[in-house]
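Hi Prof. W.,

I finally got the Aste57867_17926 protein prediction working! I wasn't sure whether to trim anything, so I left the full sequence exactly as given:
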Amino acid sequence: MIKDVYYVPESLRREFSEHELAEFREQFQAFDTSGDGGVDADELAAMMALLDIHMERRELVDLVAVVDADGSGQIEFHEFVRMMSNLRRGQSTKLSKFIQMSKQAFEIREECRDLQTTPVVGCRANDKRERTCGNGACRSTARRHRRTKEPRFTSTSSLFGRDYPYEPPTVVLHTRIYHVNFIMLVDGTAPTEWLSALWTPDWRARSLIERLQHLLQTPEPDLMVPIYNARDVPPTIGTTARSFGIDCFNQYVEAPEAFARHARDLVRRQTEA
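And this is what came out:
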């Protein structure tokens, strides 16, 4: 009789929907690189290495042992599902927390990979994973200034945190431009305080880049009104930069031709630098 490596006891199966069980199976298969129906310390180490996490083998063996109820030396699928059941009940372990984090990290990596293989028109993206940047980072370069003859590009980085996609990533512009929606700081970067007002959990990295690309070409001053009307200055901007941003906003609204000249001069200086 052939053993079903994805067997889950009925009492445990009732706790989850078929969709959730299918997701668990997909996660488990990502760890079970040998395809033998179990995840051992070596496979766990390999998966952690992909996320730039490195642990001593003894610690990895101990992590497996906590979940390995039958002492086989590896985590079988039903034990994996039991671990996720305990996590749902608030009984987390270091391994279950890593599994939860890795799911999100792999999804972000797939989004970045999709942007590399099928890029947004006029853009290119690179995966810049760093352990200090939450669960992932993606740097994108977008074409802008469609009315100029020569190509102009801007560079942005998106740092994805643990609450993504329910909270927006931290997006920073790294190219000095004079733009009503990007308040330049002394270090030459610009935060995107308005993003939280637009973000929905349905957005992904692709929709974010498409929105940034559109905004670079078609400014939206209304997005800045709540920021400038707020009583408190956002800590990512500061009082001085906010004052500069308000001047930029007023010039864009009241003297668009002067604004355009200033923007072109800044682009020219940056190109010649």
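The domain at 10-92 is CATH 1.10.238.10 (Recoverin; domain 1). Does that look reasonable to you?

Thanks,
D.
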